[in-house]
Amino acid sequence: xxxxxxxxxxxxxxxxxxxxxxxxxxxxxxxxxxxxxxxxxxxxxxxxxxxxxxxxxxxxxxxxxxxxxxxxxxxxxxxxxxxxxxxxxxxxxxxxxxxxxxxxxxxxxxxxxxxxxxxxxxxxxxxxxxxxxxxxxxxxxxxxxxxxxxxxxxxxxxxxxxxxxxxxxxxxxxxxxxxxxxxxxxxxxxxxxxx
Length: 195
What we know:
The protein is mainly alpha-helical. It contains 9 helices and no strands.
């Protein structure tokens, strides 16, 4: 790897270990083995590098979530959309439970968005792609088959649930709903039937 890649890897490590706001340029240099001047040369600023680290970490987390095995080894995903919804949320929730440092860093970044226009723009630029990925994950299709309007509407729904569950996992990790709990809630909301 060159300095650019080393810096990004170092920034991603710092994001998990120290958080976004507490990471200094010197922390990144120490974690990467690069020199201080290389941050400006390759990224323009520490903030630009940290924004890229947030995006790269999120993409990697999303890809690893999509590649996680189904709960039952080798079992095909259910053809029933509500059952598939429950099974997929169980996989996502397992992923959330095993990555508390990543979740904490993501929630911290969300809190910074109102005051950091550059961060807000960087995340806003990749949000549609994240929606596509979530729709693909939950529908069991390649993300190339997800149209922009579906990604906007349905992807936003999944992103809202995911964000809320990430926050909840930090506040009450032992009280998270299961995928089947979420499916039961969705059934109640859409049909009015008692759980």
